[in-house]
Amino acid sequence: MIITTGEHCAPAAAERAHALAAKSGCSYVPRNRASMAKLAGQYPGEDILVVLEGGARLHRPGEQPMAFHPSMSFVRAKRLFKGEKDTMLEAAGVRPGDTIIDCTAGLGADSIMFSLGAGQEGKVIAMEESLPLWALLHEGLAYYASGLQAFDEALRRIEPRHGHHLRFLEQMPDQSADVVYFDPMFRDPVLESSSISPLRAFANNSRLEETAIAEACRVARRTVILKEKLGSGEFERLGFRVLGRSHSKITYGVITH
Fold this sequence. Notes:
The chain is an alpha/beta fold and 257 residues long.
């Protein structure tokens, strides 16, 4: 992957692109007003992350460009601010001050909700195995501006980390988080929004390992939670208790201590 800036580059964007390249181990390429087509021709087959004022945009050959956007988390957040309950936060039993590990962050929609639920004293670690998605998430959480201060503050509190969740969990001490969350990419896709479908080009669609769930149970003080399709067999295979009936094809299962 190469990292560059928008066509009309501000000095701050160039500094961010340099810093992200150093942090990720990728190459920084000055844009010099080159078109994306020209850059793609110069670096055939490479993913290109474009650092922008309000986040970043990710280009992959043969795929539609993908920009960071909070997607449905913004709608869910506004409902939460009105005093309505969020199904995921209720299922996970999230409390203010909680430490939460989102093992499969993607573009962070659920991490954002966990950050809102845990509040200013809480901590959310957003794990993402895909380097391009992690880079997009890293810039979006730090620089996306929704115009809603409490929402943007929740983004800034999230700590995005790159790596496989199992390797990370294995390094965590016993009972060092309150909630550990998994939202794996469904291998049999349901009808998806335009914001979710592009993730398939980057995400790992392997099914969860029993070892990862065992490590999550060791690390979690209270709850391990899984988002999955009803009838997929994953809740039974991995030992989760499904919470009630759902009108949606997607629901949550928990393991509690």
